[in-house]
Structures are given as C-alpha cells and as structure tokens.
Amino acid sequence: MPRLFGTNGIRGIPGKDLQPELIVKIGHAVSARLGKKIAIGRDGRISSPMISELLSASLLESGSDVYDTGMLPTPALQFYTGRKKFDGSVMVTASHNPPEFNGIKVVGSTGVEVSRQVEKEIEALVFAEAKLEKNNLATGELISVSDAIDVYLNGITSHVDIEKIKAKKFKVVIDAGNGMQALAAPKLMEELGCTAICINCEVDGNFPARGSEPIPEKLTELAKEVRGLHADFGVAFDGDGDRAVFCDEKGTIQTGDKSGALLAYYVLSAKDKVVTTIATSNLIDWVAEKKNAKLIRTKVGSVDVTDMMINTKAKAGFEENGGFFFAPHQPVRDGAMTLALMLNALAEWKMKFSEVMAELPVFYQRKGKLSCPEELKDQILSRILNVADGNTDTTDGVKISYPDDSWVLVRLSGTEPIIRIFAESSLEARAEELYKKYITIVNDFINKKEE
Ligand code: MG
Questions:
Q1: Which residues fall within 8 angstroms of residue 285, CB to CB, at 6 or more apart?
Q2: Could you tell me which of 314, 322, 324, 319 has the C-alpha nearest to residue 293?
Q3: How close is the Cα of 437 to the center of ligand 1, in Å?
Q4: Has this prediction a pTM greater than 0.90?
C-alpha cells in the first residue's frame, strides 16, 4: 500500500501531490479514526487556508465538531489539544520545507503526533475510501477559538522561574523567519520581563527573509543584530515554530547538538532519562554521565524521539536540528518552551551564553550529503557495513564508532534521493579524515554503478 505519511506527517505540493480530493479523504479518515471533537490550526503558508478549509469541511461533513484556532505554532496547537481534551487535531504545515510545499500533521488526544500504527490506519481509511458512518447525517459544528496561543504560553511559563528571569532583564533577538513563532515568542518574552528585538517577525508564507529552515548559514542577520545590539543572545525558529537555534552573545551560532546538550544538562537530575537520535554529538554522553542520567538513542525523526520518550518516561529529548522536547510541558519539540528554558538556565547560572558553552567539551563535526539514485541506497548501506572498521550500529543507516570516541554515520534521507554523511571526533583532523574516507567510499560506489 502506498504511504501518505513521511518522517513528519503528510507532505507534498498542493495541486500536485496534495490534491483537493485527497485532502477531503484525509479529513474523512481523521474524523473516522480520531473522533468527534477536533481542533485545526495552520501555518502562514499561502496554501494553508485552502487546505485548512478543505479539511474543516470534510471533518464537518463526517460529523466532527471543528475548533478552528487559525494561525499558530505547531507546538501551540499540540499543547491546546491535550489541555482542552480534544479527540485530536490537524495542523496544516510543511514546517521548514520551501514555500511551495505544504503538509498535514495529525495529532492525537494527548497532543502528541499519532503513532506510526495510527498513521497506517488513517492511510488505510483514505485508500479504502470507506463509506463513512455519519452521525444521523448531521454535519458537525464549526467553532472559532482565539485562546490557543495564550493557553500555550501559560503552560510554558508554569515551568520556569518567572521572577528569576525577570530580574535578569535579558535582551534577546528573535528571528521568526517569517514563521509562526512571530505570533507567540515575542509575547512570551514580554511575560518574562525580557526585551525582545524582533527580526523577520512578519508572517509571510513565501519566507522571503532567510527561508523557513534555521540553518546556521542563513542566520548571519541574526548574528549581526545580536552583536550590534549587545544582546544576551539570539534565537531563530523554523516555519512552524517547533525548532529553536541559538546564537550566543558573540554572534556564534550554536548547533542543536550543543544547545540540546546544554539544556539537557540544565533539566536533568540523577536517574532521569534523555532521548536523542543517533545523529547527535557525543556531547550528550558527557552530559548524561555528569548528571548520572540515562541516555537513549533512536532513529532520526521527531516522532521517533517522542515515542521513545513516552515509552521510557524520559524527561527530555533533542535533535541536532534544534528540536528540543521537555516532557513536563509536552514530549514534543517546542521552540518557545526551548527559549524559556534557555532563559531560565542562563538566569540560574548567572553566566553569559558563550561562557556556559565554553564549559562543555569540544567535539568537531563534519557533515555533508551526496545525491544518490533511489535504487542504490540499500546497496550502499550493505557496502558500508562490509567495509566498516569499527563497531557498527544500524538503528538508522550505518553508524561506525571507534574506541577513541570518534564516529561516522552514513544515513539515507527518508524524503529525498540523498545520502548524508556525518563524522565527529574530539580531534578536528580525525573528524575530517573519517568524513573524507566514507564520502569517498560512497562516491566511488555510486560512480562505479553509474558507469
Ligand atoms: Mg518544524
């Protein structure tokens, strides 16, 4: 059976892969599987109102009552879903994908993305075009709600020491990248007595400022503003506001590996558990050991991290792309919660951002990607397994670890015809050596096959 759901919900190009007929069928299936009381939200993409209206109409037709929250960050809708006891919700977003994309994220009654099993059940309903059991042929009711962001921010501030943060009078540059945190993060800063200097905070579905993905190369404006304004730090969010990437007061962009490990250090106590993917830095191994906490690694993907956190009752989770998950709030990645935790950590430690980072051991990373024909992907992994000269782990792709704490990961992208290669070591030259060695192996293999 064909798959609709990818690593992170249903994604596609409206009018091409996301046809109105399909969207309507998804609405019917979501209603049939999740229930009567459904919330809906959307990001600021140009096509989001169209998809949201189609989904609403089909949910209503199926007899569900639809609570429309309008535009908001994905984690805000997730929190609202759990807090207000909905049977589930749908978020119209393609997160950090380019403007022409859109997508549908399906959330269960606890506010967490539905499990892989429920995704399959929804797919089966979509493809079977099952005749829907209607509620006495009555359509549901459409209700507009306007308190979702406030409920979300109240949830966040309940987990931090507001007075301690207020006393520090932090000055922070917020780069919303024309995305959804523009509607929540500045308000959060106000509630925490901080000064927010907002750049790219006009919601725009074309993401004209720096694109919707907060990758370090795109955050030069943020770094410049932080330095120029002598801010305490800066933070950049992705399009739907579930990821946060930080910039220290010197203008250095800190990757999600580092900020995630730092926040884990802050929130973890002895015997707590932290979940991350096999693609993040060994810095978290150091943190877990220091805090006497248990580290669990999963496949790459936020749903995998969330599932593992729930199954193991972990307190925190993170990804190298800036996703941080704080279970006492909700076990999903959440950009504004991440920002609030960072403010609390810095207020408590009474140190500058760069000074805190300097306390952590240094690991060097080298990352790259190669395009690769779909049909060769699996063969490449077998080849890597055959030539691997260290301990191998096949949780996701092939990860080869060495006794000196260095590692290299060769991983297939789930969404594009590319192969990613990551290498890390506490020695810069060693990271480079491992990266070159394995990218050459992959490259030679692809070229030989294509001859
Ligand atoms: Mg996102």
A1: 295
A2: 314
A3: 33
A4: yes
